[in-house]
Amino acid sequence: MKAKCWQKGMAGLMAGVMSFGIVSTTVTATAYASSLDATSSWSARENRDSSIEAENRRHERRQREIQERYERERQTERNMKKQRERQEKIDQERRAEEERHNQRMEEIRRQQQREDQIRRENERYERENAHRRHERDTSDSDKGHSQGEVNTAAIVGAVIGAIIGRATA
Q: Of the residues 81, 86, 162, 167, which has the fewest C-beta atoms closer than 10 A?
């Protein structure tokens, strides 16, 4: 999870306060030790020295703990950043795949539309040709006779009509 700015600020503030507390304790202990007069007993000095050394060890241990905690937090942030980057890459690949799929589907839809249009045009052409064939098959000039027979009958009819027309005139 991404840490918010105020959380980072608070972590820095707390680390500063703890460091200040540790440093001030160290300085206070040192100042206290130096304020004692030089005539005090050797055992008192030894006790002061051991307590100062203990305080210094505690201070160093506390600094290491703070540093380790800081490193763990940084590592956690780095891991989360890597995870977010991996997730973003996966999402990007998924979006690209969806886009390719949509393009393929659109291409298929266009192809189907072209095929449907060609099929409709072919059906219209067939209907028109069927209508023309039906008109040609059912026309008065064609009752099952060939074109030559029809022409011969027309000529014979014209000649006979001319003869009759002359005879009655």
A: 167
Residue 139 pLDDT level (bands cut at 50, 70, 90) = low
Q: How far apart are CA 154 and CA 156, in angstroms?
A: 6
Of 65, 66, 59, 49, the C-alpha closest to 26 is 59
Question: Is the distance from CB of 55 to CB of 92 less than 8 angstroms?
Answer: no
Tens of pLDDT along 12-57? 777 777 776 776 777 666 656 666 555 455 566 667 678 888 888 9
Confidence band for 113, pLDDT divided at 50, 70 and 90:
very high
Spell out the residues 6+ positions from residue 66 whose beta carbon is closer than 8 angstroms to its own: 15, 18, 19
Query: In terms of pTM, does the model score above 0.70?
Result: no
* Angle formed at CA 15 by CA 14 and CA 16, multiple of 5 degrees: 90
Beta strand ranges found along 7-97 (DSSP E): none
**List of residues 6+ apart from 30 with CB closer than 8 A:** 52
